[in-house]
Design brief:
The chain is of the alpha+beta class. The protein folds into two domains: 2-36 and 226-414, Multidrug efflux transporter AcrB transmembrane domain (Multidrug efflux transporter AcrB transmembrane fold), CATH 1.20.1640.10; 42-224, Gyrase A, domain 2. The protein is built from ten helices and 13 strands. The chain is elongated, with a radius of gyration of 32 Å.
């Protein structure tokens, strides 16, 4: 019976450690990395009133949505776009080495107009259905546009009324092309020429597809983080993570021996669950240096729950209860304290998530996730592993469960109320 219990315990431990070793690398690398970890471009934009188009909360939100569409269509990896204050928008583009090219596309207001020779606006970008870059005649880059049903009728009427005359197509007041209409164009399709290369045609198509910004945006700051600096930050964060978890493991082993070993194994489960939640299959979060700091701090919170449980556990052993009874009572009595302590941390984290932005929010999110996951691993995983350990009946001496006495001390001294139950 004892050998069977030992087998179950060793199997559980081996399985957890094996899964941790096998999956920790893929889990860690699957998480999106922020600007400070892989380098890239940091852009600060500020919205501005233009005529009747005023900066409102709705206008800023719509601007962020349009900027997001433009950036995603550019194929930039893992962008971060967030609002800061009433008028500012922060954009982080990890891996982007040419910020000027990105700004030319994402920062344009993109108001497209079709004008006759008298300068009257007959169509706008709102009449477009879609736009796509193509290679036209003689392999010249063009932008193929398609109008909505209403826009197609307007464009047909415009070309019919201006045969032999120019129709200017402009973007943000700059003329892109000014062709002469040879015949009426029906069917709702046309091409815009004038692009120097296919990349320029692609950027123009992106602007037209995403639509015009509701307000003007000005570039306040452009900061480039080099890949070397990002890699250096990443290397230091890996060292900090390894040192943090290493010190916690040593601390728990010294103070709580076998119980500490169980807590350390549960900590491995905690790390895997936390990384899985942050990965692409659940939250798809972006990991930054403050986020890593939140993870390292949350590991301390995770073992803190085990410390409270083990201290209660030791008190029950001293009162003369059996190891199993002491363990069950320790978890039961410590739960209220753990819940209250973690609730206070969660309140702080929620305030930071709600009121903070950028790095502060990233730190708070990882800390909050860590608190939630630590509650699960401390109450379930540690408890299950301790039950398996006690069932092995390897030793029932309190020394191996964290009590500071000699391992050869007489067990009878721990029974305050009489014989050990």
């Amino acid at each position: 019976m004892q050998s069977k219990a030992i087998g179950k315990f060793l199997l559980a431990i081996s399985l957890i450690i094996g899964v941790f070793i096998y999956f920790i690398g893929p889990l860690a690398t699957s998480i999106k990395q922020g600007l400070d970890l892989q380098g890239g471009t940091h852009i600060v934009l500020e919205t501005e009133d233009v005529g009747v188009n005023k900066v409102t909360d709705d206008a800023v939100d719509r601007t962020i949505q349009i900027l997001s569409r433009r950036i995603n269509e550019m194929g930039l990896t893992e962008p971060v776009i967030q609002r800061e204050g009433a008028k500012r928008i922060i954009i982080e583009l990890p891996g982007v080495k040419d910020p000027e090219s990105a700004i030319k596309t994402i920062g344009k207001t993109a108001v497209m107009e079709f004008k006759n020779e008298e300068g009257q606006v007959k169509l706008t970008g709102s009449d477009l259905k879609t736009a796509k870059e193509e290679l036209g005649q003689n392999k010249n880059p063009v932008v193929a546009i398609e109008f909505t049903d209403e826009g197609a009728k307007k464009f047909g009427d415009l070309t019919e009324a201006n045969v032999g005359r120019h129709i200017a197509i402009s973007l943000d007041g700059q003329v892109l092309t000014n062709p002469v209409v040879n015949e009426p164009i029906r069917g709702g399709k046309a091409v815009i020429t004038g692009s120097q290369n296919l990349e320029e045609a692609k950027n123009l198509a992106i602007l037209l597809r995403s639509g015009a910004l509701p307000v003007k945006v000005n570039v306040l700051e452009v900061r480039t983080v080099g890949p070397t600096l990002g890699q250096d930050s990443k290397d230091k964060s890996v060292v900090a993570f390894a040192v943090g978890i290493g010190l916690i493991i040593v601390f728990m082993l010294i103070l709580y021996r076998l119980a500490g070993f169980v807590a350390n194994v549960a900590l491995l489960v905690y790390v895997m669950i936390l990384l899985l939640i942050m990965g692409p299959y659940v939250l798809n979060a972006t990991l930054t240096l403050p986020g890593i700091a939140g993870i390292i701090l949350s590991m301390g919170v995770a073992v803190d729950a085990n410390i409270l449980i083990f201290e209660r556990f030791k008190e029950e052993v001293v009162d003369g209860k059996s190891l199993r009874s002491s363990m069950e009572a320790g978890f039961k009595r410590a739960f209220g304290t753990i819940f209250d302590a973690n609730t206070s941390v969660m309140i702080s984290a929620i305030v930071l998530i709600t009121m903070g932005s950028g790095p502060v929010k990233g730190f708070a999110i990882t800390l909050a996730l860590g608190v939630i996951v630590s509650m699960f691993t401390a109450i379930t995983m540690s408890r299950t592993l301790l039950r398996l350990l006690i069932a092995c009946n390897i030793t029932d001496h309190p020394f191996w469960y964290g009590y500071n006495v000699s391992p050869s001390a007489d067990l009878s001294q721990f029974a305050k109320g009489g014989k050990k139950k």
